[in-house]
Amino acid sequence: MVTWGSAKNWNSAPLLDAVGALNAAYNKTIALSDDLRDLNTPHGWSGNAATAAAGKVTQIIDSLEEHAAELAAGRRSFGDTGDAITGVMHGVREAEDLAAAQHFTISDDGTVVDSGPPTGTSADQQEAVARERQKIAAELRERVDQVVRSATDVDADFSAVLDKILSGHTIDAAANDNEHTSLAGAGNAGDALGSLTIPAPPPEGATAAQNAAYWATLSEAQRTRLAIDRPELVGPRDGFSAKQRDIANRRLIERERTTLQYARDVLQSKIDNFPRTGGGEIKLNDQREFDALKSQLQTLDGKLGGIDKLNQRLNQPADTPENQKYYLLGIDGREDGKAIVAKGNPDTASNVATYVPGTTADLATFSDELDRGDAMHREAIESGGKSTSVITWLGYDAPDTLLDAGSESYADNGKKALDGFQDGLRESHEGVPSHNTAVGHSYGTTLIGHAARDEHLVVNDLVLIASPGVGVDHASQLNLPPDHVFSTTADKDVIHVTNFPRLPGGDGMPGDPLGPSPTDTEFGGRTFRSNPGTTVAGPLDLPSVAAHGEYWQQNNPSLRSTGKIIAGLQP
């Protein structure tokens, strides 16, 4: 039985060292293939002696085939097991490092022991510290359990291969046709038998901490193999590394495009074959149905175009600090479509920002949102945040219209997804914790506000741009110090004159607002300046919709301030 105490003493070196010797022996055996072809009974020789000789040849060939298969299986299983042990040991180190940093210890039987909070914890902090330590203890227990699960899986797989090798049941050599025997073929069969399975991930819906605990027990080779072989298990998982999520999602985006293209072809066929009059016109009674089909086709064309633009962006060269690699962290072509893309690796960056778009954002227009993310990334780097990743996060169903944006339901439906994503960024980050910022625009600020209010969003700063309200009356209700809540709205942004009443189905009665503007003095946060914005032509100099999207223009002080906040500086 594998325990924490036994697993933490595992050592992959002897197994990995043995791979070289096994490989040398395998190559020598395979080199005998030519000699086997000459072991046939001489032509014309018959009788008892010839029969005995033929039987002996068969035994030799079968023995060599079995030997080749055993060597190949051993070589593969020793290598895979050594590699898997490397992953298990990584999981052990991560758990022990977390325990040591938080004043916990882990006993050999896997018990997590709380050594007490750091000295100097004030009385008014004790309750909050106790709650936080309960969460840490739970995460440590999950990490210990996952190490033991993964180690048990590795042990069982390796034992099964060794049993077959030692019992001489690697392959059924006697079933082979010796006239056409191939030691290489026998070796290939043994190699396949020696391959270890990768432990199954936690079930769908697991927390970012559970996913990270599992991921920590896999080697880099196992992670990449899983991303390639089972991209649907890796791509959407918060807590898995950005590198492998990108590998998986680049495979999934091609699946999504194929699915959408097939749906479009079917729909186009329905439109082309739709019943018409003799003059080629649509009957009046059928016009509504026909218009619905055309609308669906337009939606599919938009999503396909959005995917094509996204693919172009993903394949751009990454050769400068400003022009970093894009990581595809999520893709979903259903409904309006969702996508999550990071510019720069969030697992290694010192500053990580998550930008949440607002009303009308969808897969068709995602490239425009990426432009805004790129502008913030560039500005953060120019502000001094050389190690920066900016993520454009469309991981929720955004309102389609301004009328829809009066409802809290979109924010309530998306807040857990945003919170889980932020937890995952913390879990998968390497080294010193990053400075994390959530940036929202328009209804995206409402989603961020609900996530911060209800889910305790794990970020250092909030940036609320052109907000219609975030669901609270004061910045302190967002579970961050108010001086870490920043906001701006252009003077000529139409949002100033839009009431955004809640609609029936929201938490409040019709007519209740989403909350006060975060730029109000009474809100308690900090504000920064934006350009006034474009106005509607005419003597009244009226606010405009155009001003609602101008915060990322190069000469706008709002962009400079946002970049500084992302870089951990004062705006």
TrEMBL record:
Coiled-coil boundaries: none
Pfam families associated with the record: Abhydrolase_8
Listed InterPro entries: AB_hydrolase_fold, DUF1023
Keywords (A to Z) from UniProt: Hydrolase
GO MF annotation: an example: hydrolase activity
Superkingdom of source: Bacteria
Domain DUF1023 per the UniProt entry, residue ranges: 332-498
Signal peptide: none
The name this protein goes by in its record: Alpha/beta hydrolase
